[in-house]
Every structure is written in C-alpha cells, then in structure tokens.
Specification:
Layout lengths: L3 H20 L17 H7 L3 E7 H19 L12 E7 L2 H12 L5 H10 L2 H7 L4 E4 L4 H7 L3 H13 L8 E3 L11 H8 L3 E3 L9 E9 L3 H12 L4 E9 L1
Parallel strand pairs: 2-7, 3-6, 6-7
Antiparallel strand pairs: 1-2, 4-5
C-alpha cells in the first residue's frame, strides 16, 4: 500500500503536466507560433548570423582583459581593481546583438520567464555543449539577491539550468552560492565601477561541495566579465579545481 502512494502522486504529476502542455503548448520563443522545440525553422534562420558556439581559453581571455585594463588606465588612472582572470575557459552561444539581445532583455526585465525554455533548448540541442557537460562535475547558476529575485519573480539563470538538469540529469546545485550584497545593475556601470560594485557580493555556503571539483558557472550575458570573475575567485579560493563560464551571449 505504501509503495502505491508515491506511484500515485507521480502519475498525478504526469497527468497535470500533460494537461498543462495541452492548454499551454510549446511555442517558438521568437515568433510565438506553436512549436515543440521552442524555435521554428524560420526563426532558426533569423538567429543563425548571431550564433558562435565558441570556446575561449584562458590565454585569450587574459590577453583581452589586459587590453581592457590598459584602456581603462588611460581613461581613469585608477589601480584599485583586480587585474586577474580566475576562471579557466569561457563558452558562449551567441553574440549579444540584434534579436538575441532583445530576447535576453525581454527575458530578464519584462517578465518573459517562458523564454527560459527557448534558451535552455538552444543549449540542449548543441552537440558541443553537451560534450562539454560530460567533463564537469557541477553546474552553478549565478545567484541573485533575494530582494531583486522577489521583484523580478524568478532567477533567469536558475530557470534555464533546472530545465537542463531535468533533460540531462546533470548535477545542478543552486545552494552552493549566495548573493549577500545588493548591487546596482551592472549594465549602467563602466569597467572599474562594475568590479567595485560586485566585490564581496557573493558567499560560498558549503566549501565541501566544490573542493577539487570541475565547475560550470552559468550566466546569461558576458560584457566585462566582472560578475563571473568575482564568483570564480571565491570558488577557486574555496577549493574549486577548474571553472568554465557558460554564457548565452557575449558582448
């Protein structure tokens, strides 16, 4: 009898999901037409020119970072920032332009939480990323502070990685990192201000879960890299072995 109870609730859950899919069918994240894969063939062609699916290693990242710093030095002459890259590699799916930029802004700031399915399927349907997943132990989404999450209603990075976890069974952990400081929106700040704004904003809650682990840190947009670099620093100090930044779009 006791064995029947969990089976009953599992069947009930499946039935509810089937009814939900019937009432709210999958739609293309771009044009809104019904589509099982969350993107239709026509819209696939529309985003093709923004596709990159590119892995950048630390040597190139460091070189580009030094260029940004040298430009900033000339403009501001301020040395009060960290000039080191703490993550090891970066993989991004799109250039942060055109329709991709518009979709990400809509997803983050206009309550379009349903776009999580579109972006998750972009990742799930790419062979390169799926091969990369096999090389890492944990996926961690960039956390939000509780007040901002309450105002927005969701953490856009969490929604995406939870769908990935449901489909691939990869180890996703949303309880390792905590954002402990409320920060300004990074997009409104310059290179130095972004670093200062995000400094000491995060905390590793359980070091034992990441010691000697290879970690994928997931975020939606990469501009200067200040946020993911700050998180990578505390993850490395807490014992992480290797960190890959996985990004939807890179500026």
């Amino acid at each position: 009898m006791l064995e029947f109870v969990p089976n009953f609730f599992m069947q009930l859950k499946n039935e509810i999901e089937n009814i939900f899919r019937y009432v709210f069918p999958n739609i293309c994240g771009i044009c809104g037409k019904i589509n099982e894969n969350y993107i239709c063939e026509k819209c696939k062609k529309r985003i093709k020119k923004f596709e990159k699916y590119e892995l950048i290693d630390k040597e190139i990242l460091n070189f580009n970072y030094k260029i940004k710093i040298s430009v900033f030095d000339k403009e501001k002459d301020n040395k009060n920032y960290d000039d080191k890259i703490y993550f090891d590699n970066l993989f991004y799916c799109f250039e942060y332009k055109g329709i991709i930029r518009n979709l990400l802004l809509k997803y983050k700031f206009s309550g379009a939480s349903y776009l999580c399915y579109f972006f998750a399927n972009v990742i799930l349907n790419n062979k390169k990323i799926n091969e990369i997943f096999k090389l890492y132990d944990i996926i961690i989404p960039v956390p939000m502070d509780k007040n901002k999450k309450l105002r927005r209603g969701y953490n856009q990075t969490e929604l995406i990685v939870n769908i990935i976890n449901k489909n691939l069974g990869i180890n996703v952990n949303t309880n390792i990192l905590k954002k402990i400081k409320s920060t300004k929106t990074q997009s409104k700040l310059n290179f130095y201000e972004r670093q200062k704004n995000i400094k000491n904003a995060f905390l590793v809650k359980n070091k034992s879960l990441i010691e000697n682990k290879k970690i994928i840190l997931f975020d939606d947009i990469y501009t200067t890299g200040a946020t993911v670099n700050e998180i990578s620093k505390i993850l490395k100090f807490a014992g992480a072995k290797e960190i890959l930044i996985l990004i939807i779009a890179k500026n």
